[in-house]
Amino acid sequence: MVATVTGSDGSQTSGISTSQLFSRSLIPPVCFATGTLIRTSRGEVAVENLAVGDCAVTASGELRSITWIGHRHITSAGLVLPFNQQPVRVRAGAFDHGLPLRDLYLSPGHPVLVGADSDNEGGVLVPIMCLENGTSIRRETRSSVTYWHVELDAHDILLAEGLPAESYIDGGDRAFFGQVSDLALHNPDFVTPNWSGRCRPVAVDGSMVVAERGRLDAAFASSLAAQCYWDLSAQSISTAPKWGADMLPDWPGAQVTPLDPTC
């Protein structure tokens, strides 16, 4: 498979094989796909229309100035992108409470805030790929994608389609933008040498991640039940296991009663 990578300065690197793409570390780090709405002091603005000097609204409600924006376009010569470069689609409402507000597309390693309180204090940052469930959060097959970085005057958490997601943190890749691998993809421990100043700790497994996966499955079950008029009162959906490909609630003891035969 051959790919063409276009930097934010318009420069292109063509004829790169998939293996070279990984070995040369050209995978974008943590990014938003084109079209993502970022909350700012002037309203919801598509990431590609942001400007340095705009004030982003952070998850805590504070305003922070945008100090740098970069992007990288990746194509695969008419074929689908490698799995590790495909954007992750987070369906509207996947995190419950109407979040995200619309479908959100992130690079696989982009961390989102998990386990925070109602004011978005506390919690940990979890790469979105660690929360994939094959239904409400899953990869999307594409032949190309443009990923965007947004850096603030201090590392913080942006609101992307209303969902708290990490801002850019400099891992030494700024000069080449995208010329560094997504550490979450190649480093299972998510060790980030020389990366300091993160506003929250990062987790790729452990109790908080496991609990969030269960909560997301429950949110999906509840949403699906509401759309299909299913009665899930027999057992709390919080005990539901990970959804299978058929997306049907099949845990022991559950009573699933479709009230609408057309659903």
TrEMBL record:
One Pfam family recorded for the sequence: Hint_2
Taxonomic superkingdom: Bacteria
Annotated Gene3D superfamilies: Hedgehog/Intein (Hint) domain (2.170.16.10)
Domain Hedgehog/Intein (Hint): 30-171
InterPro entries per UniProt: Hedgehog/Intein_dom, Hint_dom_sf
Protein's name in the database: Hedgehog/Intein (Hint) domain-containing protein
The species this protein was found in: Methylorubrum extorquens
